[in-house]
What we know:
Elements: E1 2-6, H1 16-30, E2 34-38, E3 45-48, E4 51-57, H2 61-71, E5 75-78, H3 83-94, E6 100-102, H4 107-113, H5 119-130, E7 136-138, H6 141-149, E8 155-157, E9 181-185, H7 195-198, E10 205-209, H8 215-221, E11 226-227, H9 236-242, E12 245-248, H10 257-264, E13 269-271, H11 277-280, E14 287-289, H12 293-300, H13 305-312, H14 317-328
Parallel strand pairs: 1-2, 1-5, 5-6, 6-7, 7-8, 9-10, 9-12, 10-11, 12-13, 13-14
Antiparallel strand pairs: 3-4
Amino acid sequence: xxxxxxxxxxxxxxxxxxxxxxxxxxxxxxxxxxxxxxxxxxxxxxxxxxxxxxxxxxxxxxxxxxxxxxxxxxxxxxxxxxxxxxxxxxxxxxxxxxxxxxxxxxxxxxxxxxxxxxxxxxxxxxxxxxxxxxxxxxxxxxxxxxxxxxxxxxxxxxxxxxxxxxxxxxxxxxxxxxxxxxxxxxxxxxxxxxxxxxxxxxxxxxxxxxxxxxxxxxxxxxxxxxxxxxxxxxxxxxxxxxxxxxxxxxxxxxxxxxxxxxxxxxxxxxxxxxxxxxxxxxxxxxxxxxxxxxxxxxxxxxxxxxxxxxxxxxxxxxxxxxxxxxxxxxxxxxxxxxxxxxxxxxx
Length: 347
């Protein structure tokens, strides 16, 4: 198939959406599909309000329309709800083309936490955006249930995976690290609830990998914590392997790709028993889930890193991509017909 994917999240951003699309694109091409990925890097852009490190495309419609018309896709997938996604949605509706969408991020909860928009209004806007979609892809069953309850239709599952050849256990020199080391990786922003981790009275040391609007304030108020900034995809395994426990304090993430990355390196997870971690982490095997995050951290220390790694091997990008392709079979464009879905791997 010829598959066009439009996303407001793209490199050099470092986040779960970018990593998901990168891995999915690689798997699709190995299966013989042609993929066009449109992201803000190829467009004029501006800084996202309150997230200056994120660039948003400026008036992208004409360039998106030209790219899609030239590519003549069999299927169009709109990955995000920003300017790129809005432009692609407009193009599809104007030309009566079916499309799928994805719901990666709990924007209603995020915007409410930042006191920008009430949840009810944001959910209304998102129902409008995703309403024409033939399949709204979400990463977990609980996320599907949540959107169903909020009045979304055509919600389907699209799981996530991890590159276990890249994220794997490796020996590290721990001589200069005060043990145990508790690690957080992700955006440093209020919706991630990072302060719930930073204020815990834990032995050893705490590291934070990532950047965001809250970093300067938290770095000033928690001088005993090491803030190491954002790290690239290739750098992350070394930091995971330094850690004794990966701490995930978020209560609003739909999946948390960093959870499976850490587990693939054999690092047990400590998190709240909420949507996201409860779908990804097996309590007592790959991590500890508890409403008292400090209790979860200490319980996670007792788990076998070999067991954590073994559990993470169950997550496969190949299986996730197979789900993605399956949902595309429902798209029938006016001027194209779907090619066979079962493609031979590229040798």
